[in-house]
Specification:
Ribosomal Protein S5, domain 2, alpha+beta, 2 helices
Length: 95
């Protein structure tokens, strides 16, 4: 069963060693589209994308647009920021 985001949401900062993540609902059947900006894209881009896909899968989210602006975040920080953005996007209006 797929989980559908209710709205766009964001978490994180663009400070050093952090990541700003924005999630937006996408049309049914479009899958996940991850846009990643990072100064370490060549070295760690594959790993960052893998962590993002793991978190999306854990929440059952299949149709989503993710924009991640990484500033050298560790995997645990990426997971935490993405989890918060997803929870914000799933919360009913006014929460």
């Amino acid at each position: 069963m797929s989980t559908k985001l209710l709205r766009s949401a964001q978490a994180g900062t663009i400070e050093s060693n952090d990541i700003m993540v924005t999630v937006e609902p996408a049309a049914d059947g479009t899958g996940s589209n991850v846009t990643l900006v990072s100064p370490v894209l060549k070295q760690y881009g594959r790993q960052i994308r893998s962590v993002i896909e793991e978190v999306l899968a854990a929440h059952g989210i299949t149709d989503v647009q993710v924009h991640a602006n990484d500033k050298g975040a560790l995997d645990c920080t990426i997971r935490a920021r993405l989890n918060v953005a997803i929870l914000r996007a799933l919360a009913p209006e006014g929460d």
